[in-house]
């Protein structure tokens, strides 16, 4: 009944079906039909129609007094909502994993700030799957298999995982790096992360092995696992994106014919119809950026 209420209020304010139709961008017949529906709904005659124009009935005057302020306030709120949703100016609340946002996406944030200066970024960095609705975020970047939920999910692509170690391990006299990975990884200490505890390795020939043993070291933070390996703690399986500049890194890619399970990257957001223009453009820009990265395989 919102359309009927708005039509009634504007028709009363204008005192004419024709002027009301002009303001509403519709026809006189539509305006008349809306008034008829409202009168049928209320069971009261609200307007007297005569050659001299329109006048409110007693019931119509009482109804108008109750509705005018509400309809005007609703129109203002809808206009503000439209501005909030469809404008690039305003706050964009993004959730993202710490290690992915701070390293691989560092260049992307520079790009965003340069090209969209009217958007105020509100970044919530957390490696846990925090509740996006509770956080009132517009959109979230998530890595790894996504649980079934009511969230809208868009898979952008995958990040390959590789084995890396300190260079000293590759020259260790008692290690044969040409042997099969399963035998080798029983001799070299492994550093695991909670996100990548189980190592399933495959090669381009379709062979696959799974490392079931416990890791010598375990951490819940990717950067800490890399720090331990740079200190000589052993070998670890990490997303290729975590080694952004391999030429300047203290690590070497070992067993290059073998790689771990790819890590899927998703964008998720709460409601399909309420995604803001800012979040929509953010998704487009991030998709374009990722597709250009050597460590990313776009879908």
From TrEMBL:
The keyword NADP does not apply. InterPro entries: LysR-type_TF_proteobact-type, LysR_HTH_N, LysR_subst-bd, WH-like_DNA-bd_sf, WH_DNA-bd_sf. The keyword DNA-binding applies. One of its GO terms (biological process) is DNA-templated transcription. CDD domains: PBP2_CrgA_like. Belongs to the LysR transcriptional regulatory family. Keywords: DNA-binding, Transcription, Transcription regulation. One of its GO terms (molecular function) is DNA-binding transcription factor activity. This is LysR family transcriptional regulator. Residues 1-57 form the HTH lysR-type domain. It holds the Pfam family HTH_1.
């Amino acid at each position: 009944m919102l359309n009927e209420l708005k039509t009634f209020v504007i028709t009363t304010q204008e005192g004419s079906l024709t002027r009301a139709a002009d303001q509403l961008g519709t026809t006189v017949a539509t305006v008349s039909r809306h008034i008829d529906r409202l009168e049928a709904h209320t069971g009261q005659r609200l307007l007297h129609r005569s050659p001299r124009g329109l006048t409110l009935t007693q019931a119509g005057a009482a109804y108008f007094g109750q509705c005018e302020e509400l309809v005007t306030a609703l129109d203002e709120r809808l206009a503000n909502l439209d501005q909030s949703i469809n404008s690039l100016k305003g706050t964009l609340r993004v959730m993202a994993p710490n290690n992915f946002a701070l390293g691989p996406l560092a260049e992307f944030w520079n790009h965003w700030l340069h090209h969209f200066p009217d958007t105020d970024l509100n970044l919530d960095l957390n490696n846990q799957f925090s509740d996006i609705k509770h956080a009132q975020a517009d959109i979230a970047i998530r890595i790894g298999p996504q649980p079934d939920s009511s969230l809208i999910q868009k898979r952008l692509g995958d990040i390959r995982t590789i084995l890396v170690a300190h260079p000293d391990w590759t020259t260790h006299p008692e290690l044969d790096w040409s042997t099969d990975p399963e035998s080798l990884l029983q001799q070299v200490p492994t550093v695991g992360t909670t996100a990548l505890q189980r190592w399933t390795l495959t090669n381009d020939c379709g062979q696959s092995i799974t490392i079931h043993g416990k890791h010598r070291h375990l951490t819940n933070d990717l950067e800490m696992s890399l720090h331990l390996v740079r200190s000589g703690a052993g070998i670890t399986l990490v997303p290729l994106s975590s080694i952004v500049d391999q030429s300047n890194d203290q690590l070497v890619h070992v067993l290059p014919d073998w790689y771990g399970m790819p890590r899927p990257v998703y964008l998720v957001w709460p409601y399909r119809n309420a995604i803001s223009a800012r979040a929509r453009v953010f998704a487009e820009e991030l998709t374009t950026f990722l597709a250009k990265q050597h460590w990313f395989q776009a879908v």
